[in-house]
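Why do we bother with holo predictions? Because pocket geometry can differ from the apo form. Keep that in mind while you read this record for FE2/S2 (inorganic) cluster.
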Amino acid sequence: MTKITYIESDGTRHETEAQNGATVMETAIMNGVPGIVAECGGACTCATCHVYVDEEWFDATGGPSHMEEDMLDFAFDVRPTSRLSCQIKVRDELDGLVVHVPTRQG
Ligand code: FES
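The structure, written out:
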């Protein structure tokens, strides 16, 4: 199990145990984290699963792919550590990952 913490814009924390192989988006949905909409179900075609990877973790997650970058153009308030959470696969190296949920999805 890999620990992932989601922090809402008001500071509310959601600490979850994620299955390796699932995505950060799927883990949020399974744990009822508010603010992750995921309209397209993980197909990288909606940008409503936008998160800010905590700066300390951005090297570990890596940046977005070209396709993801194109979709991020449709997200609200994109920042240097923005990712689409459906494109981050949970793995051992991400144990302890912290992501921040935007105030709203685009
Ligand atoms: S769930 Fe649609 S882009 Fe991630």
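The longest strand covers residues 2-7.
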